[in-house]
Amino acid sequence: MKKRELEFELLPEIEARYSPMYFGEGDVLEEDLRAMLLAAIQAPSAYNEQPWRFYVAKTQQDKEMLMEYMLPGEKEWMVNAPVWILLAGDIGDTHNGLYNYWSSFDAGCAWGFLSLEAQRRGYVTHCIGSFDRIDLRNEFQKNENLEIYGIVAVGRPAPEEITAKEKIPARKSVNAVQLRRK
Ligand SMILES: Cc1cc2nc3c(=O)[nH]c(=O)nc-3n(C[C@H](O)[C@H](O)[C@H](O)COP(=O)(O)O)c2cc1C
Question: Residue 16's pLDDT is what?
């Protein structure tokens, strides 16, 4: 299996995860999908507010609704993924009624967990952020408490002859991302 060449051995799912543009044959099993969402909601969140919200699109009708808000360029490869999961956050559903500053941070962690559980179960994921998030919000909630963060395509990996041609984007070094005080 294709994986990253890293300085240290990490969780196999971290080493293997990347965002493919191609998907293979095969559906996402209902139980696996539920387990991915279950993994996602095990993420930590500020004050345990659990601001993440998910919308699973599996039918043509649901996908077409999402496509209306997507920018050109993504639909073409996304359509080959059997499941799309819209990831949002509720910035207003808090214990004290104040704005949840950490909603996107927490939802990001949840999607990270989701992607690794997907990987462990033999699936691949690719999140996109190129859609009209303001108009899309109105499909689900009219008020401004819902922030739409991403749409995650989930499917089986493409055959190896295809994935072999895909490049895993490189990362900055650990040193490069370490902050130093002025
Ligand atoms: C919030 C978010 C938005 C993204 N938006 C897009 C997108 O619009 N189109 C796309 O092809 N990839 C998108 N990506 C995928 C990133 O380009 C990808 O994660 C990054 O290049 C690192 O590559 P890797 O995931 O394969 O390691 C997005 C990823 C995230 C987390």
Answer: 96
> What does the pLDDT read at residue 143?
84
Give the pocket of ligand 1 (CB within 6 Å). 18-19, 74, 127-130, 150, 168-169
Of 2, 13, 19, the one to substitute when testing ligand 1's pocket (max ligand atoms within 8 A of C-beta) is: 19
3-state secondary structure 66-100: HHCCECCCCHHHHCCCCEEEEEEEECCCCCCCCCC
**Rounded to two decimals, what is the model's pTM?**
0.97
Best residue among 78, 106, 126 to mutate for probing ligand 1's pocket (most ligand atoms within 8 Å of CB) is 126
DSSP 8-state code for residue 154: E
CATH fold of 12-158, please?
NADH Oxidase (3.40.109)
Query: What is the pLDDT, as a whole number, of residue 2?
Result: 83
Structure tokens at 142: 């009219």
Query: Which residue's CA is the nearest one to ligand 1's atom 14?
Result: 128
Residues of the chain with pLDDT under 50: none
